Amino acid sequence: MLRVGSLRQLTLGSFFLALVPLIALLWQSQSDLAMVGKMTSEETHYVVSVVGQLQALDGAATDLERTVRQFAIIQNATVADLTDNAIFQFASAKSKLCEALAQSEYCQTLDKQIEQLRNFRTIRDKLLLNAYLASLSTAMQGVRSDVDKAIQARLTQQQENMSSMQAKQAWSTALLVSVSLLLILLASQLIVNPVRKLKQIIQILAHQRGNLPPLSTRAPHELIGVEKDLHWLAERLQQLEHIRTALLRHAAHELKTPLASIKEGCSLLSDNVVGPLNPQQAEVLTLLSSSTQRLNTLVEKLLDYNLLLQQAQPKFTKCNPKDLVRDCIEDYALALQDREVSVSVSVANVVVDEELYRRILDNLVSNAVAHGAIGRPISVNIYKEGDDAILDVANRGKKIPAEKVSKLFEPFTRGDDPRNDNVIGTGLGLSIVSDCARLMHGDVQVVDVDNADVCFRVRIPQEENNE
Questions:
Q1: Strand ranges across the sheet with 341-345
Q2: Span 343-389, pLDDT tens digits
Q3: What's the start-to-end Cα distance of the chain, in Å?
Q4: CA-CA to 176 of 20 to 30 Å: which in 6, 126, 310, 366?
Q5: Percent helix, percent strand, percent coil in the chain, to nearest 5
Q6: Pick from 17, 414, 409: which is nearest to 176 by CA?
Q7: Nearest of 157, 147, 153, 149 to residue 50 by alpha carbon
Q8: How far apart are CA 55 and CA 49, in angstroms?
Q9: φ, ψ dihedrals at 139, nearest 5°
Q10: What's the Cα-to-Cα distance from 51 to each of 33, 154, 176, rounded to whole Å?
């Protein structure tokens, strides 16, 4: 099993490991460069040497021809000695050049010409002498041609070696760079995978759905430490969530019993069971009954919110949105009797949790009734956008300031403007809408539309809920 150390060790180790192929490539490049330099030096030395030897042979051939012709005219011992020396110099230059040329038929021809010219003292026929010298000149032309061919052959071989070396260098570069990139990707994957897992854990914590993956065993120590902290944070959040739900449940239930007694007492007093009340007492009783009713509404909202928090997984089914909207409008018929409600449903069905979706409708319609302009229309639109089912509930009235939009969906947050029904709200309606949408993997936003001043848009993904 691969053991990963700290993040610093992994980073430095990956860096040096990725450098190994590049160092090997640099070493090979330096070796090839040194080989090219050596090859170029050898070829240059060969060309210079051969050309110099050819020039020396040409000079010796010229001297040899001149002294031979001089002896044919003067025929004395001094000229004969000069001719013998010219023949020796020519033979010596020919030997050096022919050694560099390896095999050349013209070198053998020159050997024959040298042997013929060594008998220059006995040659009396000028035509024969001219024939020997002409043959020597022809052989020299052949030697020059052999020198050119030898130089060209060496240059061609050098070019082939260079091409082969370039091809080898290209393949080596591609291979070693690929290995280096592979090592870099492997090392980066050892960092990316734990970071991706941390992101997954954070998303699970943010959306509060699903179980946390097990702790990693192959990751840098620092990232494993962060993962352990996130697991601890998840456990702590779960504990706090249990404490909050238990507190809400117990507080709400504990309030129900004395609240029922207070309501019963108010009912007895209002029925004059204990005796008639004077006008001042009746007014106090009216205020007490009103406060009791508001407290009862708050307790019911707390119980409903607590029930929503305890719902872990929604149950998705295909629902008819027209029926849901119709039932919601009928429940608010009394509050909507002086309002025009525009309903537009362009989808046959939506995949949602029916109870959660109905809560969203109830709270958004209730919010529009409470805060919308009196006598102005309210619109409810359900349509599809891409793979999402969209619910828009819009109304006329005072626009919501941009700086307050972010806090609208927090629990127990109420608006500053008075409600149309003069009821003190609990500040849970829009929070319930947000939590219901989140449980169905969606969200809610305040958007700008042309036909209304305030529009709440709920987006519920359909493709994800169908799976």
A1: 341-345, 378-385, 388-395, 454-461, 443-447
A2: 999 998 999 988 889 889 988 988 888 888 887 889 999 999 888 99
A3: 36
A4: 6
A5: 70, 10, 25
A6: 17
A7: 147
A8: 10
A9: -60, -35
A10: 27, 14, 43
